[in-house]
Amino acid sequence: MLSEQQIWEYIKKINCESNTECSLSNLRMLQYRHLLTIPYENLDPMNGVALSLSPDDLFEKIILNSRGGYCFELQGLFYYLLQSLGYQVTQYAGRFMNEPWHVQMRRHRILVANIAGNRYVCDVGVRSESPRYPLILEEDTVQTDGICEYRYEKDSFYGWILMQKQPNKEWKPMLGFTEEPQIDEDFIMPSFYCEKHPDSTFNKFMKISIFTDDTNLNIIGNEFRVFKNGRIISRHTIENDRAAREYLSEKFGIKAPGSYRFIK
Fold this sequence. Notes:
Blueprint: H1 4-13, H2 24-37, H3 43-46, H4 55-64, H5 71-85, E1 88-96, E2 108-115, E3 118-122, E4 135-136, E5 143-144, E6 149-155, E7 159-165, E8 171-177, H6 188-196, E9 207-211, E10 216-220, E11 223-228, E12 231-237, H7 241-252
Antiparallel strand pairs: 1-2, 1-8, 2-3, 3-4, 5-6, 6-7, 7-8, 9-10, 10-11, 11-12
Helix pairs in contact: 4-5
């Protein structure tokens, strides 16, 4: 649990000072503001810096030091915030489905909040266009966040499958999860894989993302891209570490340590 002081600083960071009571409207605003203010980033694994998933360490890194994190970090800290505010939240482990030629390992932290008997999937840890608001966990109910449409399907292996329909595109699966509740320690091993394994892409090149009201800004490797309505509307090559540091600060609000390297 976060302390009252930590809750206040967290809420202030994402500009949601008045949204602390447990309700669906406040949960929607918390997720939306989180996505607009706290970036997805993998700069620590890229630079060989060990990650900690403890509440205090995540709070210090993300809230106090103006950083971001990847899903295990972002979803972890958001989980602690929601719990501390009084939301009933269960954690699950999910599989991304963006590589249809093989089944991926479970490496996504899923949060499901129960409000008035309904369950809502909350996610602030996906590095691409993804739900900007919590989605009710119901089969075949089409929902929208103002950018894309979403619905859940059921599958005998993947469990719940999140489907996404971007503007002028077909439905596609994003990720799936089954309903075995997870504890914090269950995410240490997949996070360590992402940090250290030679096959992991999280320790090799930049994966950065943040949302605006109608776009997703991201960096992959040495390219900065702006997505809108499911397509790239601009892209720029990042020439060197100095330019990368400027992009990280100006576009994503990231204050990276002076010793960090970005272009490999």
